[in-house]
């Protein structure tokens, strides 16, 4: 705590992991002897840099850029870039720390990292976003590479920003190094299904959790928070599976559509027009918009928080449970507060933590790296099947490990132990580094 003062989200993420590791440390005393946990909690490298840029009126702005290269025991650092005004070093460290375990869970050869900036893309023109992103990469390029560190998107960073980043990287290095970034457009080196992967993956994970309990997803009522990349494709897959999604949101409020959300309208508003979700009600009769409302006050069978960290608190968890909730699958990173997680676990509902449930995005990024390395491109059906198999394997690994340690159904414990074991074994093999 002393060394990482004020980094509250980072403390929260570390605490959540450490609390579950007692049993595995007893089985593996060498982890404690070799101080594996202390090593994992300290990033291998942290880069903080100035990002100056000019807006359309010619005014100069200064933002702060971050890249935390947390752990490379299993492969090059891998993790997204977030552009959001709330970003601090503590935010990036919490995300990077989670990423180590998540990436290990996928079974792919990728280490953990994360980056971003306190830049706010909202209300900025394409040209402003481009100039900012180019300035960001003018520093970042020297720290990344196919074999070193491979960033991707996250909040505020989608295909447009990845395009600007790749263009600037290519220009500065004079290298067409496709594998340096993932989340690229499929027209120039991106993988099909990457855009859909995190949302689809969270639904595949949900399906697996329900299967264990003998429950079908078809006919269930769902709530998905957020209306960004993860939320949109979680809604799409839920609808394909016959679930009815009645609400989604942005940071200003939520929409409630008891007839089931029209995904075509949401995609048009968010992906094409970059508008607010409140506009939905102007295009759809029977739907209502609740400004500053709490989406978790609505009743549903399954909840998929897909917006941001700590968006679902203890009171919301209690309200969801009393309204008949049976499962939570987290598309976002750390969306439920520690107290909310306790409520879910005490109630015995299926609780799929983000580290496991949203790992489909980074797993598909690793598939994008595979395709880039072999100069190949796979079709949609094949890629989706690979994603589904990976999510099924992650679910099975977490489930079996929780059972092995006497905590059947505790995916938090299962995921943290699977992730730790994989990273720790590699770190021990490398010696004290
Ligand atoms: P987007 O930027 O595409 O969408 C984010 C959505 O969440 C928007 O609707 C946004 O609303 C809302 N949101 C963001 N911040 C807040 C906030 N402080 N309060 C309320 N709502 C907020 O991001 P993604 O969909 O890519 O990411 C969503 C979550 O999923 C994040 O936690 C991210 O780390 C996680 N994730 C993403 C992956 C990916 O592949 N993209 C992979 C794994 C995890 P508004 O427009 O009002 O800001």
Automatic annotation (TrEMBL):
List, for all copies, the residue spans of the domain called Glutamate/phenylalanine/leucine/valine/L-tryptophan dehydrogenase C-terminal.
Answer: 191-431
Q: What catalytic activity is recorded?
A: L-glutamate + NADP(+) + H2O = 2-oxoglutarate + NH4(+) + NADPH + H(+)
* Gene Ontology cellular component annotations, sorted alphabetically: cytosol
Keywords linked to the UniProt accession:
NAD, Nucleotide-binding, Oxidoreductase
**Where do the catalytic residues lie?**
114
Q: Where does NAD(+) bind?
A: 198, 229
Q: Which SUPFAM superfamilies match?
A: Aminoacid dehydrogenase-like, N-terminal domain (SSF53223), NAD(P)-binding Rossmann-fold domains (SSF51735)
The record's listing under InterPro entries reads: Aminoacid_DH-like_N_sf, Glu/Leu/Phe/Val/Trp_DH, Glu/Leu/Phe/Val/Trp_DH_C, Glu/Leu/Phe/Val/Trp_DH_dimer, Glu_DH, Glu_Leu_Phe_Val_DH, NAD(P)-bd_dom_sf, NAD_bind_Glu_DH
Annotated site residues (Important for catalysis) in this chain:
154
Write one Pfam family the protein is assigned to: ELFV_dehydrog_N
GO terms in the biological process aspect are: glutamate biosynthetic process
Give one GO molecular function term.
Answer: glutamate dehydrogenase (NADP+) activity
Q: Which Gene3D superfamilies does this chain map to? A: Glutamate Dehydrogenase, chain A, domain 3, Leucine Dehydrogenase, chain A, domain 1, NAD(P)-binding Rossmann-like Domain
Question: Binding of substrate: at which residues?
Answer: 78, 99, 102, 153, 365
Subunit composition? Homohexamer.
Q: Name the family.
A: Belongs to the Glu/Leu/Phe/Val dehydrogenases family.
What is this protein's function per UniProt?
A: Catalyzes the reversible oxidative deamination of glutamate to alpha-ketoglutarate and ammonia.
> Protein name, please?
Glutamate dehydrogenase
Gene it is expressed from:
gdhA
